[in-house]
Amino acid sequence: MVEHMTPALDVIFQALTDGTRRAMLRSLATGDRNIGELAAPFDMSLAAASKHVKVLERAGLVRRMVKGRTHVCRLEPAPLAAADEWLRFYEQFWNQKLDALDALLKAEDQAAGKHQPKGTLR
Amino acid sequence: MVEHMTPALDVIFQALTDGTRRAMLRSLATGDRNIGELAAPFDMSLAAASKHVKVLERAGLVRRMVKGRTHVCRLEPAPLAAADEWLRFYEQFWNQKLDALDALLKAEDQAAGKHQPKGTLR
DNA sequence: CATATGCTCAACCATAAGGTTGAATATCTA
DNA sequence: TAGATATTCAACCTTATGGTTGAGCATATG
């Protein structure tokens, strides 16, 4: 149901690997931006920024509207939900870890350094 | 607080771009696996699988324990929490979108297919 | 109209990614 | 000890990524 025309997880995660692109998404979170505005904070050519935007588009994370000579970009957050959904599966594991750590710290408090607990890893 | 873990996020997301590696993580979610076991489901050399595991290790997602001649791999979920935290920021946006969609569908129900709504983007 | 502006495109370059193969290493087992 | 097993390493190949530059194309603006 979620995986209709949602771009593959591959391209979504791939789009997120680059700090420049993540920063662009942050910028878009506060409003629409054209290519020049997205490129401005970075020391790179407009062509390079244009490529980054194209990667974001391929992942479905950005929609472009050509308006005269400027290309207005808008954040399209839906694919991020797909990535989040994938991650959500592992939530149990890191929660478990944190719970274990929590228990560990409590036990340490009580034992006052007497026994050293075994931990989760053999 | 926002992007202070940037170098880490790069390698974490990068590790997740590959479907093979995501499948390996799934496998590890059900228990420890050695390299051969991780490689088994895939039509690729052991050397290739070994490289994938190394990528997962670099991202901190897997810990390796050499046990005799086998290398036992264990899921290390903590870095996924960092990725999740990054994504969480955008949760508001896709929730917002879903709310809009919800409202749209309700309106459609009432209008009984009279107008076809154009969506939120002009 | 002339020219500045916003952006893409194409060509190119260096490096990274993902795969292969063959050889090397270390460890179990008969 | 000999051989099978588990895995890495090194070299190599192909394609992808991220960047550059220079040219080209619409579209605003004086």
Folded structure, characterized:
The structure is a homodimer of 122-residue chains. By secondary structure, chain A is mainly alpha-helical. Chain A has a domain at 9-78: Arc Repressor Mutant, subunit A. The first copy, chain A, is built from five helices and three strands; from the N terminus they run ααβααββα. Chain A starts with 8 loop residues before the first helix and ends in an 11-residue tail after the last helix. The interface between A and B is medium-sized, with 33 and 34 residues.
Q: Order of strands in the sheet with the most strands of chain A?
A: 1-3-2
Rg over C-alpha atoms of chain A, rounded to the nearest angstrom: 22 Å
Q: Quickly give the structural class of chain A.
A: mainly alpha
Overall average residue pLDDT of chain A: 83
DSSP helical segment count of chain A: 5
Q: Which residues of chain A form runs of ≥5 with pLDDT under 50?
A: 1-5, 112-122
Order of helices and strands of chain A: HHEHHEEH
Largest interface, chains and sizes: A-B, 33 and 34 residues
Give the name of the CATH superfamily of the domain at 9-78 in chain A: Winged helix-like DNA-binding domain superfamily/Winged helix DNA-binding domain
Work out the number of β strands of chain A. Answer: 3
CATH topology descriptor of the domain at 9-78 in chain A? Arc Repressor Mutant, subunit A
Question: Which terms would index this structure?
Answer:
homodimer; 122 residues; mainly alpha; Arc Repressor Mutant, subunit A; three-stranded antiparallel sheet; 5 helices; disordered C terminus; DNA-binding
